[in-house]
Structures are given as structure tokens and as C-alpha cells.
Specification:
Belongs to the glycosyl hydrolase 18 family. It is built from 12 helices and 18 strands. It has 480 residues and is of the alpha/beta class. It folds into 2 domains: 53 residues, Ribbon (Seminal Fluid Protein  PDC-109 (Domain B)), CATH 2.10.10; 304 residues, Glycosidases (TIM Barrel, Alpha-Beta Barrel), CATH 3.20.20.
């Protein structure tokens, strides 16, 4: 069974200049002060407060978030200096738990924005998460695309990852999307058939077959040596007559071209482009071809080692994996958020945050509307931690349900609720464990950033980490 992939297996040593964000303009000092901010008051979008002689406006639901610490992509918008306001009491060191749902009901993706979710092939086993759960959680109407993860790249060819989960497993009526049980002699069963049923129920959905991932990227080195043969094998696998109608695209998740992931590749900076070009030639211009790529924004880092910009000209969308920046592979810490949107004082590695990656990719000529922002539906954590704020020492990885150092959001929201925010994401200290993860409130902030940057949408890893009613997906869809 494949484990959840990790962008960096060890602490990197790359150091780069952090992209700077443009400060928000402030208003005139003659403006009257709004009511003073209160640490215990619940505020909804549009609420006005004053704090330390400045006015602020809430962008969404908030409680306990100090206005002056919000930053450009935080919950509070700085409206400038004011005159005559009273000062609130000293703010708490650990803000109250963020909300479990956005203040306004989700309305679904607007316009041509993509909301893309990974469905993990192996989730049908221990996680007991099936295609039907996408429907019953209310998420099917809120996403636009599903990434089916993963197919293998072994030997430089596309191949099925798990035939039993993919097309052999028989579903009973209560497990099936349409309530109809599989029969022993039907030509297609498994998740592929369930995806077919889901697409019939939700005709707007597109399904993309993702190849590679952290564990199965080893074959891409050989694929780059004969890209045409690789493309032929992918076409033959995805367009198999048994399930050709299920898939609308192919996604290449090569971790990482001309760099190291679980294995190291030295195919050169043009290898990735050669593979993508061969796929585009084979599948044609109308087929969806996407790629999940590194989000290493450091100078001389993984983005700089491959010509992603040329390849992007042939890609429909690009998914920089803006999560897993930090984790308990650095088992003694320092504790750090695994998916920071911005930099922050004390960040362990310069350039390891989402905005650095987005700005670097844009600077290389990739259009902003081709880029999607990545969100993890899980937390990464340490144990043996005494410091509440990021930057503390640890003794190892915090216990997790399936793997040490990692846990689903749906578990953490109850077992270790968020106690603070940093760099546009949340963290939590409970006992000696320290976790970082995104919440509906921090996701709302990230979607505000995605809109401001004119990104093409957002994607997430993966469906089963969300709550049974899909509250994180609702936060993406409702705020994008």
C-alpha cells in the first residue's frame, strides 16, 4: 500500500530570497475609530473594529485573531489609522479555535475556477473511503475535477496501480453510488465503475488519471528516454475500452524531474517538457493534461532545476504542491507549519512557502490562471514539544492513525483543535504534541489569496481527510 506522499523527505538545505508581498494601503488618520476589538467576540465578514488606533474590517468569520497580526492574507483587512478609539484588553496568547465552517453558505466554484480533489486508490481499504462518500458528503457538487491517484510509471510505461481497487472489487448496493449492486459477470467493477456512476449523477465532473506520486515516480527517468513509448502506453491504459468514458485527462506527478524525491533523477532540465510534449502529441489538443509539480520556491531549488515554463505551454493546468514544506522527518524540529501561505519570522528554510512558489512560477512565464493553489486535508506534527508557537524543539513524530507525524483534519479538529495561526495557516498545541493544518477559516484566507493572484483555482490532497459533511471542500468552493 502506498503511503501519503511527501514533497521533501528530509530537511532541505536550500536557501533563497523570500518573495515580498505588497503592503495594503491605509486610510486617513482623521477617520473615526470603530468599536474596539474584543478577543472573545465573534465577528463575521464585514464587521468593523479598531485596534491600536487603526480600523480593521473582517473578511470572514473570526474569533480571537489579533488584527495587527493578520497580514495581507489574514482575516483582518487594515483600513488605516483612526482617531478616538479605546484600546482593548491584552489579547490572549492562544486565540480561540477557528470555526468549523465559513460564515456564508458555499455557492460552488465561480466562473471557470477549478476545484480539484485527489481520490486515493488505496483509501477503499483501511480508510473505508469510497467514491460514494464524495456524493454523500455533499462534495460532488462542489468540485469540478477528481484526480484518481495513482497509476504507476514503472519501466517508463503507464500501468495500473491496483487492479482490485480500480476495476475488480465488487460493490454492494449500499456501497454503490446509485444503490445498484455489482454482479459477478459485469465487465467493470471497482472504483472505475463507481466513478462512471458518479459522473452520470453529476455530469459536470471530470476525472483525471494521475500517474506517479511520491512512491511511483521512479519510472519517469526511463519515460524521459523514450517519451513517445511512454505516451503510447498511457493512452492505451487510459483509453482501454472498458473504462475509456471514465477518464477525461491524464496528470503527471513526477517527484521530481532533474532532482531528488524518493529516487533521484538526472535527466536534465528538458526531460519533463519532453514527456509532456509526447503526451500532448498522443492525446491531442482537447484532452486535459495536468501536472503536479514541486512548490520549492527557494533560489536554486527544484523549480529552478527543470524547465517547467516550456512544459506548461502544453499543460491544461499546473498544480504546485504547496504543502509538506516542513514535517517530522526533521524529528527534533524546529516545529513549523507544513503549508504556510507566506513567510514568517523564524521560518526554517527561506522560500519554503506557497507565495514564494507561485511568484517564482509566474516570473518564469507561467500564466497565473494555469496555476492552482494546493491545500492539504491533514496535519503534520511532532511530539515532545513544550513551546506553543512555531520554532520549538521536539523529540520525534507525533502519533498518527496510519503513519507517525501525520493525521487527517477530521481527526485533528477534535483531538487537537487549533490554538493559533501563522503565515496564513493554523497550528495546535495539545499536551506535548504540536500540529499544523488548515481549517475552514485559514482556507478562506488562502482562497482570498488565490482570487487576488488570479489563480486558476485550488486543489487538495485528499478527499478522505475531510469531515463527513465535507467542510474543508465547502470552504474552498464557497470562497473561491
Amino acid at each position: 500500500m502506498i503511503t501519503r506522499r511527501t514533497l521533501w523527505a528530509g530537511a532541505a538545505t536550500l536557501i533563497g530570497a523570500a518573495a515580498m508581498l505588497v503592503p495594503v494601503a491605509t486610510a486617513s488618520a482623521a477617520t473615526p475609530c470603530a468599536p474596539a476589538w474584543s478577543a472573545t467576540q465573534v465577528y463575521t465578514g464585514g464587521a468593523a473594529v479598531s485596534y491600536q488606533s487603526k480600523n480593521y474590517s473582517a473578511k470572514w468569520w473570526t474569533q480571537g485573531d489579533v488584527p495587527s497580526a493578520s497580514g495581507q492574507w489574514g482575516v483582518w483587512a487594515d483600513k488605516g489609522a483612526c482617531d478616538g478609539g479605546s484600546e482593548p484588553s491584552t489579547p490572549p496568547s492562544s486565540p480561540s479555535t477557528p470555526p468549523t465552517s465559513p460564515s456564508t453558505p458555499p455557492t460552488g466554484p465561480s466562473g471557470d475556477k477549478w476545484v480539484v480533489g485527489y481520490f486515493a486508490e488505496w483509501g477503499v481499504y483501511g480508510r473505508n473511503y469510497h467514491v460514494k462518500n464524495i456524493d454523500t458528503s455533499g462534495s460532488a457538487s462542489k468540485v469540478t475535477h477528481i484526480l484518481y491517484a495513482f497509476g504507476n510509471s514503472t519501466g517508463g510505461r503507464c500501468s495500473i496501480g491496483d487492479s482490485y481497487a480500480d476495476y475488480e472489487k465488487a460493490y454492494t448496493a449500499d456501497q454503490s453510488v446509485d444503490g445498484v449492486a455489482d454482479t459477478w459477470d459485469q465487465p467493470l467493477r471497482g472504483s472505475f465503475n463507481q466513478l462512471r456512476k458518479l459522473k452520470k449523477k453529476y455530469p459536470h465532473l471530470k476525472v483525471i488519471y494521475s500517474i506517479g506520486g511520491w512512491t511511483w515516480s521512479g519510472g519517469f527517468t526511463q519515460a524521459a528516454q523514450n517519451p513517445a513509448a511512454f505516451a503510447d502506453s498511457c493512452y492505451n491504459m487510459i483509453e482501454d475500452p472498458r473504462w475509456a468514458d471514465v477518464f477525461d485527462g491524464i496528470d503527471i506527478d513526477w517527484e521530481y524531474p532533474n532532482a531528488c524525491g524518493l529516487q533521484c533523477d538526472s535527466s536534465g532540465p528538458d526531460a519533463f517538457n519532453k514527456v509532456i510534449s509526447a503526451l500532448r502529441t498522443k492525446f491531442g489538443q482537447s484532452y486535459l493534461i495536468t501536472a503536479a509539480i514541486t512548490a520549492d520556491g527557494s533560489t536554486g531549488g527544484k523549480i529552478d532545476l527543470t524547465d517547467y515554463a516550456t512544459a506548461a505551454q502544453k499543460l491544461t493546468k499546473v498544480f504546485p504542491m504547496t504543502y509538506d514544506y516542513f514535517g517530522a522527518w526533521a524529528n527534533t524540529g524546529p516545529t513549523a507549519p507544513h503549508s504556510p501561505l507566506t513567510s514568517y519570522p523564524g521560518i526554517p528554510i527561506a522560500g519554503f512557502y506557497s507565495d514564494a512558489a507561485i511568484q517564482k512560477l509566474k516570473s518564469k512565464g507561467i500564466p497565473s490562471d494555469k496555476l492552482l493553489l494546493g491545500v492539504g486535508f491533514y496535519g503534520r506534527g511532532w511530539t515532545g514539544v513544550t513551546q506553543t508557537e512555531p520554532g520549538g524543539s521536539a523529540t520525534g513524530a507525533a502519533p498518527g492513525t496510519y503513519e507517525a507525524g501525520i493525521e487527517d483534519y477530521k481527526v485533528l479538529k477534535n483531538s487537537c483543535p487549533a490554538t493559533g495561526t501563522v503565515a496564513g495557516t493554523a497550528y495546535a498545541k495539545c499536551g506535548s504534541n504540536w500540529w499544523s493544518y488548515d481549517t475552514p477559516a485559514t482556507i478562506a484566507g488562502k482562497m482570498a489569496y488565490a482570487k487576488q493572484q488570479n489563480l486558476g483555482g485550488a486543489f487538495f490532497w485528499e478527499f478522505s481527510g475531510d469531515t463527513g459533511n465535507g467542510e474543508l471542500i465547502s470552504a474552498i468552493s464557497g470562497n473561491l
